[in-house]
Amino acid sequence: MFDAETRELLRAVLDEVCGNADEYQNATRAHVTSEILGAAGQESAIIDHLREVGRAALKTAPCDVALMCAKKDAVNGVFARLSLPSRQK
C-alpha cells in the first residue's frame, strides 16, 4: 500500500495524463492507472517517469466500447430526428 501523500501524487499524475480523456472512459483510465501503479512500485520511480508511463499507457489503452456505442446511438438519434427532404429523380 502507498501512504496518503503518495496516493495523492499518483492521483495527480493520473488526472494530468487523462486530463483530455472523457470522464466516462473507464477502461482507458483503468489501464493507465494500472500502468502507473506498476511503475510506482519500482524503487526507481520518479514523477517524470510515472508521467511517461501514463502517457505511453494512454496511447495503448483499450477502446471503451460502451462509450462508442452510446455516442453512435446518440448520433443516430440526431439523424433520425432530422426531417430531410427525400431525394426524388
Task: Describe the protein's architecture and organization.
The protein has 89 residues and is mainly α. The protein has a domain at 4-62. Helix content is 66%, strand content 0%. The protein has four helices and no strands. It has helices at residues 4-17, 26-40, 47-59, 65-81. The longest helix is centred in the C-terminal third of the chain and has 17 residues, at 65-81. The radius of gyration is 20 Å and the shape is globular. The N and C termini lie far apart (70 Å). Mean pLDDT is 76; it is low at 83-87.
Question: Which key phrases capture this entry?
Answer:
mainly alpha; disordered C terminus
CA-atom Rg in angstroms: 20 Å
| Outline type | globular
Tell me, rounded to a whole number, the average pLDDT: 76
**Quick one: biggest sheet?**
none
Say how many strands there are: 0
Distance between the termini: 70 Å
Task: Walk me through the topology.
Blueprint (H helix, E strand, L loop, with lengths): L3 H14 L8 H15 L6 H13 L5 H17 L8
Helix pairs in contact: 1-2, 1-3, 2-3
